[in-house]
Structure formats: C-alpha cells, structure tokens
Design brief:
The chain is α/β, with parallel strands linked by helices. The protein contains 11 helices and 15 strands. The protein is globular and about 60 Å long. The relative contact order is 0.18. It comes from Phytopseudomonas seleniipraecipitans.
Length: 402
C-alpha cells in the first residue's frame, strides 16, 4: 500500500522549518555543526545542536516539559493547520501517533539525578514520566486530543524509520485513517558519553567514507509527517512512502555485519515492497555515520545492490547523527528533495574532505557543487538507509504521486 506524506514539520541543526532546512541542506551548510564543551568530561566535541528558539510548552502540559518534547512541538506547530484539517476530516479517534526516539526526556532526568547524587535531594521538578519512551507520542496525542493508537518505537538509530513503516502498516490494516509519524531526539550527556565509551565520537566534524574518518557527531532533531492512505486511483500530486524493508541480522550488539548482509536485505525488501528495480532509484541517502565499521559495510552493500552506481550522500556532516530521529529526518530530506522547496532540483551534497578510502568500493557521492541532479517531476524514487545496533536495518523509498 502506498502512503501519502501530506505534510512535514522539521527542525534540526540546519534550521527550523521546511524552507530554512531545505536551503541549508542543498547548500551543504555545515554552520550548525559546532564545537561545544560540557557534554563529555575534559573534551570539546562537535555536535549538531538546534540553535533556533523552541516554543514553550502549552498551558496545562508543564509536567511534560522536556527539550525533546519542545523539539517535537516545534515540528508540530509548523504543520498545525494541516493536522487540524486532518482531524476535521477523519475524526480524533481515527488518527494514530507513532514516533521514534531513543532519548525521550532523559536529558532532564539525568540532570535531576546528578543533582540528587550531589546533594541527596531530588528536585521537585523531576518527573519520571518525562523519560518514558512513550512520552513524546503521549504528549502529542494529549495536546491534540487524539484517541487513536499512540506509541513510540525505540530501536536505536532505526527508530523513526521504523515508525514510518509502522504507520504505513496501520493504514494498510485499516486501524486508522491518518497517522502523525516521525521522530525526535535531543542532545544529552547519556548518549554522548555512551558513544564516547565506544571510542566512536569525533571531536571534529565527521567525515563519512573518507580514509581520514574518525567517528560520529551527535545531533538533535524532530521530523513529523502527516501520513494518509493513497487510493489506487489517486491522481493528486504529492509525495508518498512507496515501501520499506526491515531486517535484523543480529550479528553483534553494536557492530554491523562486515559485509552488510542485513543492510542489503533491507534495501532489497524495500524495493520489492515498492515494486521497483534498483535502476529506478534516483538517489540514496546513506546512513553514513563516518565510523569505520558502518562506512565499510554500507559501501559493500550499496555496491552489491547498485553495481552501476547511484547518486548518494550522507547528511551526517550537516546535522550530526540524530539517533532515534535520524530515520525520519533523512526521509524528510528525501521529501524536501522531491518538493517545491527544492527549486533547483538538487540532491543533498556529500560534505567531506574528498579523500576516499582505497579499501572501500567507490560510491557516486553527490559533489557540493552539483546542480539539477534530479529529473523533472514524475517517476522519481529516493531511498533512505538507517542502520542500528543489534544488526537492526531499515530502508525506506519515497517518490512522486501520481
């Protein structure tokens, strides 16, 4: 079943709002990637922080206050009119909320618990519910008065890509008529120090697929779609999720399969679900974290599926790795590439030092000065990869309607 992606709200290190994000994305603007102290002891690291002001929590939702929920609120407010129109059309009981996250409100919880360890007194502002994985979806549904299915996916870096795939299945099953779906994650010390303990965090801006790559940057973001069912004879222009593929090869608790077997299978399943051949894909958004293991296995997987090559890039050097939000954010970049916000028909450029790793297959990485990479509207299909700990792999395919 094809699912329409009727509206998008987005905020990340590139900016707030579709046009601001699109302008910075296609310009390859790395200005949002900045060195900061205070995240990891005795280190200054590059992070993709959202610098634009975030909205205050609505009245009556003070106990749900967290940076994570405020990021989500910023994305939701951008498409508030479209959401209200969807509620009016389908009814509050026929709309689901499915989000992906890995941090929820753990940033605030961590600060309160650190204060308790230092003083022995737990702040009155501490709320356990803030850190529950379901907190973002629950907040959004309560704020909008929705009574359809409400839940969060938390499968590390595939969380929000899996949320989009789950949303499509809810529509296919007839459980609901519309889904607010996407992902949100905020910067927090827990995740940054966790990745640092794996020796995976780069102090400098990340350098995906370079021989000089030396680890990831962490970022924060929210991306929220309104998804509805596309009828078989739908001739209304738009952007849709045509299919997705998920696998779990369980190769290792944190390292991917070195030959990218699960990654290949996820991409092949996405193509099969969309009824497409690999040659029909115009662009591939790579997971591209700039870690040694990920870049190596993804290069092999892409070469196996696209032996003739495919235009591709990693956006991690522009936004950082936004973890649970990454799948939805990078699907949003595909959405923006297909939308009227991309007036130059550009593709997201691959920002790196240009020094390829001779031990890896050569990929067709989109150069920073490329123009008019996409064909004219109609028959355009873009793929986005997300890979996570535990051998969790997911690929999505977005394209034009009709």
């Amino acid at each position: 079943m094809i699912a329409r992606l009727d509206a998008l709200g987005v905020v990340c290190a590139l900016g707030q709002g579709k046009q601001a994000v699109a302008d910075a994305l296609f310009a390859g603007d790395t200005g949002g990637m900045r060195r900061q102290e205070g995240w990891i002891p005795e280190r200054s690291v590059t992070v993709g922080a959202v610098e634009t002001p975030l909205p205050a929590m609505p009245a009556g939702f003070e106990q749900a206050a967290s940076r994570n929920n405020r990021l989500l609120l910023a994305a939701a407010l951008e498409i508030h009119d479209e959401i209200q129109a969807t509620i009016a059309r389908h009814g509050a009981d026929r709309i689901a909320v499915v989000l992906g996250t890995s941090t929820s409100g753990i940033a605030e919880a961590g600060e309160h618990i650190a204060g308790f360890m230092n003083t022995g007194v737990l702040s009155d502002e501490y709320r356990y519910s803030q850190q529950e994985i379901t907190a973002p979806a629950t907040f959004l549904a309560d704020w909008l008065g929705l009574s359809g299915p409400v839940y969060c996916q938390s499968t590390a870096c595939t969380s929000s890509a899996r949320a989009l795939l789950s949303a499509q299945r809810l529509l296919q099953l007839g459980v609901c008529d519309a889904v607010l779906c996407g992902g949100v994650d905020s910067l927090c010390k827990l995740t940054l120090n966790g990745f640092a303990s794996l020796e995976a965090v780069s102090d400098e801006r990340c350098n995906p697929f370079s021989v000089n790559r030396h680890g990831i940057n962490i970022g924060e973001a929210a991306a929220l779609f309104v998804m509805t069912r596309a009828d078989g004879d739908d001739q209304t222009p738009g952007i849709a999720l045509f299919g997705g593929g998920a696998t779990s090869d369980a190769h290792h608790i944190s390292a991917p399969h070195p030959e990218g077997i699960g990654a290949q299978q996820a991409m092949r399943k996405a193509l099969a679900a969309a009824g497409l051949a690999a040659e029909q894909i115009s662009y591939l958004n790579l997971h591209g974290t700039a870690t040694t293991h990920n870049d190596a296995m993804e290069s092999l997987a892409v070469q196996a599926l696209f032996p003739a090559g495919v235009a591709c890039s990693s956006s991690k050097s522009l936004t950082g790795h936004t973890l649970g939000a990454a799948g939805a954010l990078e699907a949003a970049f595909c959405w923006l590439s297909l939308s009227e916000h991309n007036t130059g028909r550009q593709l997201p450029p691959h920002i790196w030092d240009g020094e390829g790793d001779p031990q890896l297959p050569r990929l067709n990485l989109v150069p920073a000065d490329a123009t008019e990479q996409l064909p004219a509207r109609g028959g355009r299909y873009l793929m986005s990869n997300s890979f996570a700990f535990g051998g969790n792999n997911l690929s999505l395919i977005l394209g034009d309607l009709p």
